[in-house]
């Protein structure tokens, strides 16, 4: 049996907007189920809130999210997601997409440890860290 560990982001009322944005950045398949569709008890006017959204990319990444109904406390900000690897082209494309409307904390640039690293806070308050592994196997 295998296991999977993936981020699950909690939003107040912005899950659909955020997940549609991430879908535009990462591609893949996005499935959104509302509280009304899921048959969950909900307050009047909350049937269209996102009970569960799942974005699955061709690269095998999974990102999940939900809205917070009025019967639950709104989540604290401070959610962080890290995306890393050695595909500089793809990770740079992710960075550029995530940068739209974001506050750049650290520009995507070579870090003292050799990798290319950047950090930003997107328009929903989610911190994204992008790390591109330094090329290996150089002989000098």
TrEMBL record:
* The organism's place on the tree of life at top rank: Bacteria
Gene3D superfamilies recorded for this chain?
2,3-Dihydroxybiphenyl 1,2-Dioxygenase, domain 1
Would you tell me the protein name for this molecule? PhnB protein
Q: Which Pfam families match?
A: Glyoxalase
Ranges where the Glyoxalase/fosfomycin resistance/dioxygenase domain occurs: 6-130
SUPFAM superfamilies per record = Glyoxalase/Bleomycin resistance protein/Dihydroxybiphenyl dioxygenase
